[in-house]
Amino acid sequence: MPDNNHSRTDAAHEAGVVSGPGVYDPVNQARVTINATVNGRQVRRTVPVHYRVIDFVREELKLTGNKEGCGSGECGTCSMFIDGALVKSCLVPVQKIAGRTLETIDDLDRDAGLTVVQQAFHKCGSSQCGYCIPGMVMAATATLRKRPHASIGEIREGLGGNVCRCTGYQKIVDAVALARDVLNGTKPAEALDEEQTESFIGSRTRRLDAPAKVSGAIKYAADMWMPNMLHMQVLRSPHPYARIERIDTTQARALPGVEAILTCDDVPGVDNFGVFIEDQPVMARGVVRYTGEAVAAVVADSPEVAHAAVALIRVTYSLLDGIFDAEAAMRDGMPQLHDFAPGNICKHTKIRKGDVEAGFADADVIVEETYQTSAVEHAYLEPEAGLAYLEPDGCVTVHSPSQNITHHRHMLAKILGRPINKVRMIMSTVGGGFGGKEDMIYQGMLALAAIKTRRPVRYVFTREESFIASAKRHPFLIRYRMGLKRNGRIVATEMKMIADGGAYAMSSPGVMNKSAILGPGPYAIPNVWVDAIAVYTNNTPSGAFRAFGAFQSEFSTESHLDLCAERLGMDPIALRRVNLMQDGAVTHTGQQLDRVLATACLDGAVAAAGWDDGVAYRSGRGEAPRDDLGRAGTREPCVPGVRFSQLIAELPAIHQTARELFAAAQEGDLK
Ligand code: FES
Ligand code: FES
Description:
By secondary structure, the chain is α+β, with helices and mostly antiparallel strands. It has 19 helices and 21 strands. It has helices at 53-60, 116-123, 133-146, 152-158, 170-184, 210-215, 250-254, 303-312, 326-329, 356-362, 405-416, 443-453, 463-469, 508-518, 550-568, 572-579, 598-609, 616-619, 642-667, and strands at 6-10, 31-38, 41-48, 79-82, 85-88, 101-103, 230-236, 242-248, 258-262, 287-288, 294-300, 314-319, 345-353, 365-372, 385-390, 396-400, 423-427, 457-460, 476-484, 490-502, 528-536.
């Protein structure tokens, strides 16, 4: 925890920008001339020596089909061929392609339409957001070039260096297998044709954007480019909680190529925005509340100069004691992160139904447990990016992969102090969002930069920046109490949920509402008490994420039902059957339901899972142990409610192991 009142002046990089022999100079960058054959054409270009092949292709040649997802060799979106060998171009210095042949996704078909592999990806519905697909197509092509009769295992192995965040991979593997069969002649070319259907409902239809995604032609925000375009980089707080005493941009402004530096003083309108609660400044105003919060933005001729100028901004901070525990943040005497939020409570959603204490008094069994979930990063393959510019009529236009574009437009108009018809937002293709692009975190800076410089401005996050600055799934602490009759009927439920909302509200209020409404599950319970509380802390803000809060609360409910089933000695499925809502049920928030399929859904899941037969090697029914997981018994059992009995059985061994480790540590034997 930082020392209170400790004053410190930080530059992003202490070394700043120096030049001289052998030292990187972002203004006068050393350059190298590259001759290469790219997609069958000779090219000769002089580029900065620090360029990687992905930079050469995307920034210099403007071939943007292949993407940069991670910049560190992990995701495979940048996969290309050098002299026919598949490489991750983000790891290869540009000098390595001098005199060699480079193939990118942009012209894989040699102007002949989609390749068989690309057609198969289209046919099989393999592209969702599409951001990984160029890399996948390259890896699939490499696999089939090397092994024309590749087995499914070999196909999977060939795709092993490529990550897809959307598809679950099966449709991608299906596509490669289909391409293999068509190329080998074991399936006719017509197998790639679109299926003709009379109706779209219940039919397999093709996505309209799929051809552009499998060919790499579709443009994401980072692929956009305009003449005279500038580049933005952002200085982010290294501290979780600190007062900003001074921002000195003198050195940064003096760097040749810097066009503008923006701070909160450049916001002309209302410098507080948020989808539910307007609590977030465009850039920190007087105080930073989480590590990674934007403090200033630099706009320059090149990303390198902008980056160097960011390093020259000197910020004097007075460090403050932060709050990192949501439950503790609500206690008396804790620092208050926002004036309008006593007890640091961002949102408290309550559901009260019946008389919960009377319900517990009537219960035969009461089961209590505490559950915790962690923050989760969305990890969409497309890092955040955007392009902003002024129209001739003065309207400012922002392209970005925003998942909540109407809200963002309204917020932006307020920030800029402009009428709504002078602000235009265009949703660029979203390379994966999962809710993470619902909350606005950088579009305000981009629009301000375009207005101030009167030139197009582009901003592309690095993967690290995306991790640091974007909202996460809310971590929850859930205290659960459930009262049941011996026959399994639930008579009372009490859920107290505390969610770490982080420094700003973002989507927390909506997430709390949904977690509370859906938390008790599809069960008919006469007495319900739910509290869902989002709390401000100095952690990274939490926001929208798939299921919008329902995941956390439902996880606890379903886990808790398993524990209750064990306590009652009931089959967990039977317990659910007893309690599921039926036609005519009224939800915990008062909605009458007229067609409830919950039991049918459970029946389907039970059948599909083979629940009644049980898992062979755990069911104790005399079948041979499974050996498809390496060796028998290597897998933890998938038996709901196992935790109590397993732990009780293992406790002596755990204690024994702990005692041995402790003794070894004292003896100094522990390696
Ligand atoms: S592997 Fe190159 S961008 Fe991810
Ligand atoms: S389709 Fe693969 S990351 Fe979205």
